[in-house]
């Protein structure tokens, strides 16, 4: 049995589809979700739906019961809360006797200076502390973190940030989900660490240039000081914690923290990861 946490989310749904495409029978799959009604797609495919709420540790052991392999998708929200949630999930996986835990971490978690990286370091440590057989999927930034807002940027003619010419070795959500499915369907994965990035790092000025070509409208990149970028984001109505996280990420992007590339994603996919221009084309289709 393979259990996928967050199976109703955008990433989790893609993982489930990829597992099924790889020949995993629906009867051998389960999604563990906070709200079962949100997993209608999985249920319609014959996949079991289990209740699992990271904030309710009592739900986790049952959700993980019988799991030979568990995809532990990192939680969203405030960092301190995520630390507690991941520790609870690791403890529950140990109690359930899970055969292999695949955890979606962050690229170069052990040395990554982003503020949110400490959450992933703690989660990796929790898995080790419980002596769980684990494989670390150290995912790079989703390309969609930037392309999701490209339609609006093309209309405005501007992408705003504070990353300067810093480069981002991102990967698409679909490619990272396919890589997770590849790991979950292979033997001998315990102890492996995968650095899952795109093959070519790109900058926000290059993103603007790609949007210009695809949309036929001039799109420029405007680089702001971090405090001015924080004000800009706050005016859009984003909550303060998210504003802080986004600014922190771009400050470190400017310093090269997300520019590292690795061949691991290509190796798992058996093909090149989708490049930036492909993601831009999809976003502006």
Compact overview of the structure:
The chain has two domains: 2-139, NAD(P)-binding Rossmann-like Domain (Rossmann fold); 141-171 and 197-260 and 274-285, UDP-galactose 4-epimerase, domain 1. The protein is built from 13 helices and eleven strands.
What key attributes describe this structure?
285 residues; 2 domains; alpha/beta; UDP-galactose 4-epimerase, domain 1; seven-stranded parallel β-sheet; two-stranded parallel sheet; 11 strands; 16% strand; single chain; globular; Rossmann fold
Chain-averaged pLDDT: 96
What ranges have pLDDT less than 50 throughout 5 or more consecutive residues? none
* Number of DSSP strand runs: 11
How many discrete structural domains?
2
- Described by the principal axes of the CA atoms, the overall outline is globular
**Lateral strand order in the biggest sheet:** 3-2-1-4-5-6-9
Q: Could you name the CATH homologous superfamily of the largest domain?
A: NAD(P)-binding Rossmann-like Domain
Itemize the secondary structure elements and their pairings:
Layout: E1 2-5, H1 10-21, E2 29-33, H2 40-44, E3 48-51, H3 60-64, E4 69-72, H4 79-96, E5 100-106, H5 117-129, E6 134-139, H6 144-147, H7 150-156, E7 158-161, E8 167-168, H8 173-184, E9 193-196, E10 202-203, H9 204-215, E11 220-223, H10 226-235, H11 240-254, H12 264-269, H13 276-283
Parallel strand pairs: 1-2, 1-4, 2-3, 4-5, 5-6, 6-9, 7-11
Antiparallel strand pairs: 8-10
């Amino acid at each position: 049995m393979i259990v996928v946490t967050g199976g109703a989310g955008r990433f989790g749904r893609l993982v489930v589809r990829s597992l099924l495409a790889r020949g995993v029978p629906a009867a051998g799959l389960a999604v563990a979700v906070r709200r079962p009604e949100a997993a209608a797609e999985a249920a319609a495919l014959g996949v079991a739906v289990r209740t699992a709420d990271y904030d309710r540790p009592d739900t986790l052991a049952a959700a993980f019961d019988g799991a030979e392999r568990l995809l532990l998708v990192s939680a969203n929200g405030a960092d301190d809360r995520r630390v507690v949630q991941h520790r609870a999930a690791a403890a529950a996986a140990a109690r359930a006797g899970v055969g292999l835990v695949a955890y979606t971490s962050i690229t170069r978690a052990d040395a990554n200076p982003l503020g949110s990286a400490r959450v992933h370091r703690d989660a990796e440590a929790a898995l080790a502390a419980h002596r769980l057989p684990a494989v670390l999927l150290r995912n790079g930034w989703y390309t969609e973190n930037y392309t999701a807002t490209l339609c609006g940027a093309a209309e405005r003619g501007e992408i705003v940030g504070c990353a300067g010419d810093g480069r981002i070795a991102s990967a698409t959500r679909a490619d990272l989900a396919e890589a997770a499915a590849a790991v979950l369907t292979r033997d001998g994965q315990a102890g492996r660490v995968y650095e899952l990035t795109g093959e070519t790092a790109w900058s926000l000025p290059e993103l603007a240039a790609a949007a210009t070509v695809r949309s036929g409208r001039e799109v420029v990149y405007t680089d702001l000081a971090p405090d001015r970028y924080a004000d800009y984001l706050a005016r859009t109505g984003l909550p303060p914690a998210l504003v802080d996280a986004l600014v922190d990420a771009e400050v470190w992007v400017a310093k090269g923290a997300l520019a590292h590339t690795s061949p691991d994603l290509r190796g798992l996919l058996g093909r090149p990861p989708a490049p930036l221009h492909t993601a831009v084309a999809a976003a502006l289709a």
